[in-house]
Structure formats: structure tokens, C-alpha cells
Amino acid sequence: MAAVTLTPADIEKVTNLKAAVDGLAQITDNEKSGFINLVTRSLSGEAQHVEWSKIQTPTDEIVVPYDSLASVPEDPAETKKLLDKLVVLKLNGGLGTTMGCTGPKSVIEVRNGMTFLDLIVTQIQSLNSKYGCNVPLLLMNSFNTHEDTQKILEKYANSKIEIHTFNQSQYPRLVVEDFLPLPCKGIATKDGWYPPGHGDIFPSLMNSGKLDALMSQGKEYAFVANSDNLGAIVDLKILNHLVVKKNEYCMEVTPKTLADVKGGTLISCDGKVQLLEIAQVPDAHVSEFKSIEKFKIFNTNNLWLNLAAVKRLVQAEALKMEIIPNPKEVNGIKVLQLETAAGAAIKFFDNAIGINVPRSRFLPVKATSDLLLVQSDLYTVSDGFVVRNNARKNPENPSIELGPEFKKVCDFLSRFKTIPSIIELDSLKVTGDVSFGSGITLKGKVAINAKPGAKLEIPDGTVIATKEINGPEDL
Fold first, then answer.
1. pTM for the whole structure
2. Inter-residue contact 210 to 164 (CB < 8 Å)
3. Within 13 Å and on the Cβ side, how many CA atoms surround 305?
4. I need a surface site. Which of 37, 331, 423, 462 has the fewest CB within 10 A?
5. Contact 417, 438 (CB under 8 A)
6. Could you give the CA distance from residue 72 to residue 358 in angstroms, rounded to a whole number?
């Protein structure tokens, strides 16, 4: 890896920054050096764009069709042996603030009073019980979620599952004006700091001691996923494929729809598989990148990692993923957060692949519109697994758009006596002060608009099929 070259002015900036960071008692030496390395790489202007002419569509050897995976041996003893190599790692650093909740997002109730975390624990417990194996759960927290998560985990003290936690790094926000850490400006609260993206999983796993501990227990692979992706469940066919083929890294991708045009995709470039994000695309090619004709798949952020490979690459300081600059403003001060993404690490691993998985493995809950889908009759829950209802013939989920009155979970719940039946729904758009009674059925294309200043209540038992409702007279 070529040495980073900086201008004399940038060298002075880094020297001053390093002196200021050395005085921050809240973070470890590993965090300090990780932060300075990230800033130095950013200043060096490492190429973030790819050469468009070199991009190739990956072959089926590189992005393997899920249907081509071998079936898993039927011998339960073999399955146990396979699962005993695995740890499930959930990214648990995010807060539920965008959905109007305090605390970690993973404790939002999803269905039947069960939170994301309840569902994850139940899933792994049922696997461990069924096969007599020991798949542990590992949570990567941030400084924002650590304390609350530790308290919440007490409820699982008697569960048949090992639960471990570690924290991702805590880096100081960088003041744009003078290139010094925000905590040095008298900002003593959490606002002075940020977690540097999920690309930080690799050094944090190593620095926490968890990586060595897991490997000493015979664990070989980690299945990594966002805690809010209800489709991210352990898949034996994928695990078996990786073990047999000795793949060090696997990214699950799935076919793009028009809702996913901004998602990162896998490409081949210079004989290596790599992730291409919209930020790396030259302006002249952005519309081509968004096309679902040329770039047909996107990254679900379900990742499978070989633990020995992670250790080797972290020790060699080889994981130099593209840097994502994230400008923010805190108390009127312009700051910069430098982040990395775990998916971008794919190009550094040997024998790395993608697997083109069914859409069912990507069911994220990012907003209350997603909550409506998973709380409806479109899904059922069994042993913690969220299963799609076979009664729906359309392979795609309905598109749902709810107005700002539904944005917070508490407001969303207060506007539905019960969640409507949406098995035959194609699309729903709700605007204004609308509330729903119980036993309602929605079919086809439905738009419900309450006039400004007016309340619109949909009565119990109403069936609305492909219709626009603008007031009680339309019901």
C-alpha cells in the first residue's frame, strides 16, 4: 500500500489535530489512532471514483444465484457441526429517533409486543434448541446505545443463548473552520462525538477482544446484519456454501426495484469484486447507475465474514475502504464526520463473492410505513421468524406512503384501531388527519386525503378497493 502523501499545509493540520486528540480522555489510544488515520487518508485525496470504462457485470461465479446453492446435508449432526462454526452479529448502534422513539432502535415493538431484539433472540434460541448447537449473538453497540442495551439484555438472562456486546469506535466530530475536534470547543455532551459507520466493525471486533475469544471457541464465520432487517435470518445453504468453497466474505444482494435505485451494487473491476456506491459514480453516469437494466442487484447489508480473514486484514491494516464524508451542523457549528461502510471491504478479502438472494431476506423497518406492512396480515410470526403470507399472489409488497401525522410510532399506533387487511393492496397513500377503525380491508390502489383542518375517520369494517377518498362522502 503506497504511503499517504500530504501537502505541508495538511501535515500541519494533522499535527495540530493529533495534539488536540491526544488530550481527549474519553477515548482509547486505538480510537485516537484510527481517527487520525481516517482523517489523514481523507486529506490525501485517495481516489474515490472508479474508472467507468473498467466496470464489468459480475459473472455467476462471483455473484452466485441463490437457487444454484447446494442443499444442506440432511444429517442433523452435520447441521450442528456447521452451525457451531457460526456467530450472529447484529449492528445495534442506531437510535429510533427517526421514528419518534428514544433509545436503541432494536427495542421498538415490531409485532405482537415483540421488539426486533426479542425476535432475534427467539430465532437463535429456536436454532440452538432444534440442532443442539451453540450459536451466540453478538451486538455491536455505539456509545449512543450501549448503556440502554446493557439494561435491556437483563431480560434475556435465563434464555438459552450466549449474548455478547462490544462497542464500535467513538470519534470526535471535526470542526470544518479550524480542523479541530468539536469536544475541544466546550461541547461536553454526546453531540461532540459520532460512531464512524459500520465499516468500523472490523477494527472494533478485534480491539474489543471478541474476535480472538470467538475464534478460540471454534467459531469461523460471522453473519452480520442490521438489527432492523427482519429478513436477515440464519441461512444454512449460504453458510454451507461458504464453508465448502472457503469464501472469506459474502455479500447478499437482491434484485433492484425502482425503490432501490440508490443502493450500492456489486461490480467486477480489475479482476476483483467490489461495491459501487452512488457517491463514487461520476455525474455523467448517475442515471446509468440508477437503471435497473444495467445494474440489476443491490446490497442488502447482510454480510458473512470469515473471522480468521478479518483478523489477518485488520492486523495488516489492509482495510482501507472508501471514506464517506458526512457534513453536519451542531449548535450552529459546521462539522464533518468521516465514515466507512462494511460492504466496501469486499475487495480486500480473498475468494469474496455475492449471493443473489430472494427479496424475502431484505425486510428492513426504516419508517412506520414499513411497520404497517409487517404488522398486517401480509406477515405472520413463528419462532421469531417473520414469514410472508402465501395468500398474496403478487411477489412485491404494496407501496405505502404515510403523511407526517404517522411518522412517530406512538402517533402511528394511535391512528389504527387494528391494522387493515392489505393482502390485495397494490399501493396506499395517506395524507392529513386520517384515522382507521377496526376490520378494514384495502385493495388495489387506494389514496386517502383528509382536507386541511378536517378529520377523516374510516369506519370499522370498511372495504376500500381502488378508490380515492377525499372526505366521508366518498366512503
1. 0.95
2. yes
3. 32
4. 331
5. yes
6. 17
In this structure, which amino acid lies at residue 3?
A
What's the Cα-to-Cα distance from 372 to each of 113, 176, 256, 448, rounded to whole Å? 14, 41, 22, 15
Q: How many CB atoms sit inside 10 A of residue 256's CB?
A: 19
Write the single-letter amino acid at 208.
Answer: S
Contact between residue 419 and residue 372 where contact means Cβ atoms under 8 Å apart:
yes
Place of cell 451542523: 329
CA–CA gap between residue 335 and residue 326 (Å, rounded): 9
What number of other Cβ atoms are within 10 A of residue 272's Cβ? 13
Q: Give, for all 475 residues of the chain, the pLDDT tens digit.
A: 445 689 999 999 999 999 999 999 999 999 999 999 999 999 998 766 778 888 999 999 999 999 999 999 889 999 999 999 999 999 999 999 999 988 999 999 999 999 999 999 999 999 999 999 999 999 999 999 999 999 999 999 998 899 999 999 999 999 999 999 999 988 888 999 999 999 999 999 999 999 999 999 999 999 999 999 999 999 999 999 999 999 999 999 999 987 787 889 999 988 889 999 888 888 889 888 888 888 899 999 999 999 999 999 999 999 999 998 999 999 999 999 999 999 999 999 999 999 999 999 999 999 999 999 999 999 999 999 999 999 999 988 999 999 999 999 999 999 999 999 999 999 999 999 999 999 999 999 999 999 999 999 999 999 999 999 999 999 8
Closest CA to 249 of 159, 150, 349: 349
Residue 274: strand pairing partners: 267
- Beta pairing, strands 353-356 & 63-65: parallel
| Region of 103 on the Ramachandran plot (φ > 0 left; ψ -120 to 50 alpha; else beta) | left
